[in-house]
Write the structure tokens for this entry.
Amino acid sequence: MTEHTHAKPRASRIPLDYFRKPDFWTRWKGRLTLLLVLGGLALVGWGLASPAARRAALNRGPLAGVHKAWANDCAACHLEGFSLAAEAYADARGNPCAGGPMDQRCNGCHNGGFPLPPGGSTAWAGAFHHANASPASTVACAACHHDHRGGDADLSRVPDSSCASCHANLKPHAIDSAAVVVAAGVGAFSPGAHPPFRAQSENWKDPGSVKFNHALHLKPGMGQNYTLKQVSSEGQEKYKPYAGGEKELVSLDCAACHHLDSPSDGVSPARQAGGVFLPISFERDCKACHELAFTRDAGGGKVEVPHKIQPAEVKSFVEAVYAREFLAEKGIGKPDAQPFQPPLPGKPVAGGLAPPDAAAFQKAYGGRVNSALNRLMSKAGCAECHHLEGNRVDDHAAGFGPLPLSQVVMSRIQTGFFREGSSKAAAQWLGDQRSPIPLVWQPKARFNHAAHRAWDCVSCHSRAASSISSADILLPSVETCHSCHGPAGGKSAAQGPVIAGGARHDCVECHGYHLAGGGLTGPGNRAWADPRGAVSGAPVGGSAR
Amino acid sequence: MLITGEHARPHVPWIVGCLVAAAGALGWFLVESVGQSAWPSGGSKVGLALGVAAGLICLFEFLLWPRKKLRTWRIGPVQWWLRAHIWLGLLVVPLAVLHSGFRLGGPLSAATMVVLVIVIVSGVWGLAMQQFLPSRMLDLVPGETIVSQIPHLSGLAARDGARLVAAVCGDQSTDDDDDGELATHLVVGAVRQVGALQGRVLLTSAAPSEPVPESESLRAFFEGSARPYLLSGKAGCPGLAGERAARAWFLEVRAGLPPAAHPAVAALEDLCSQRRQWDRQAWLHGWLHAWLLVHLPLSVLLMALLAAHVVWALMYTTHPIPFIH
């Protein structure tokens, strides 16, 4: 057993250079590392060499459905290369943000978003948000509209940060900071972060000249025991749902007069999206109770003054009606040969009576004409709703000023005002006969009544049932909106209690961007036609704007 | 690197610092998110800043590899580098997640994020293994040796066993002089057990001076079972892989031999026991080091992906880059 005598050599079991020979772990670490290094380099090389590879590697997600047609054509929107960062955000005028080559590609299709110069050039042509917006603060399209977020992504639903980047501190982003009239520090629509609506903060009054008492009309029987029987025969069918029977009191609700701009019958084509209410129409909403009849024809039918004609024309119309009756009595003409038509503006008194007949007519019918005019111009007629004085009196019960109406009307007639028969003169007296009530009170915000149909009107317009003055603007407060639209569980700064919140409350829920300062009329904004035929958002209001 | 118990103290500043940094990043991110309908993207001011920070940390993390190769360089103690590697590596996770805005993005950025997560998880796994496996190994493997030399040592053990058997059974044919080989070998420690440590035991008293009569069964046992086990472990002889079964088997072998051969049987049992410990050591060593097969190669891949991500993000950005525009 010689080996046992060599203790020290026998203990020398490990090769002195064992560490120079890689073991299993070292070998495989090296092999895998080498493999992945080569793989990584191959990946980078592949990406640099092949546009298809870059597309595959870089495409951060499917395009929005509206852009699907260009899913395999990156160059339709993107510029490639390192120069992009500088190139994309500088236009020929040195604008560092908007209007660069990238934007022009967007603009190739989305002309609506940008005011284009004449000649059809797709070059960016100026402010498309607000004339006072600084060009340096006007960002490129993609700064707000992020694509590659899936086919269902809504590119117009831009994050609040896009808006807050300027509106959180607006003045530095305005060309003329002194001209900034909107709230200068709005970052979000949450209690305390969004200012009150201007109707609240500026205590707007309805500039309309029509007197209307909401509280009275919402009382059963209008507070005057008004029954269905008293409604005109033409309107009885319409108002049946508002009364149990002929002798029952009529109890109106909001929908009796306020109709959405989209027909609810499901048959007629929709003109609008149902977002706003149509203006009140006398013929549709008032006439059944507030008739303008002043006599009866030979057949016993009511003869009514057409709505919207001016006092001079009312007089002409009444005279014409009676003149025909006068002529019929004399055996000349037939009063019911043709429908009564309002006289044409600027034309002389209808009837065409010769001076001898005119004198006889005046003698026989002058009293009836004056009586009819007095009645029509009194609270039983026009003056029920319209102010005939130059000074508007808001209080419904206060009448029409210091003079009785009959004196006002007759003084106008006697001074020849009506005899001129000029609707222009009448307009001068009464002012612009187009209603000064804005069709949309908040033209720089969107609101869709149809989307809120699950709620009672008074849950937002809570003052409607108690409002007695037509000067009241019954718009809900911003706190009312916050009760649903705001961070879930947030608190109303004004009201204190915890509110529900949770409904969408991002800026674009209500506001558009591509407005060019024109509110609803801004280019690129959703097509929105005024049901009255005028361009919506045009200055239809007075102080309310 | 141990981070528990008494070893925890040097890590505290790193932990606190990284927590503060993560909280700061989260706070900034949340502030930038207030009132937004979507989380800030990687191209936003906060997203880009956090992305750059995460990228620089990744680069620093990667530098640990060359740092270990350059042990003689005076660029801070390796302990410091390791601590920074651990905690800054963990800090990368919140920074990268915030940078992503909780979105995976395109395939490249998604792959980068996935590889990052795997690298981090593998690192955490390795760190966890390091906390208890070494002490466990000390308990279970008192005869611990250099893992890469286990096959070599197993061969030597088999040869030692063969010499013992030859001495007992009277066959001198395996007695070879390996002084030339031994001269090239390193003494690995004292050949005895002290406390929990065990070294190779020299068998100066195990071999009888004369062959023992009627001991042929020992040769049969050695050639048929013990030698294959010593050379190949469990695959060579499963019956000796279990400690209890092996003990019973050796009792049985001992009962069939004259008492003079019993010391040699005990020596063979010790050799098999040591082989069993080496197998256990190799298994534990695998757990202790397997994570590196994932961590290191994927770290290299991560750097490549990160470089591509940075380059292409700048190439194809579609909106103004904060701090630049």
About this structure: The radius of gyration of chain B is 29 Å. Chain B touches chain A through 67 residues (CB under 8 Å). The first strand of chain B starts at residue 185 and ends at 187. Residues 174-192, 320-325 of chain B have pLDDT under 50 and may be disordered.
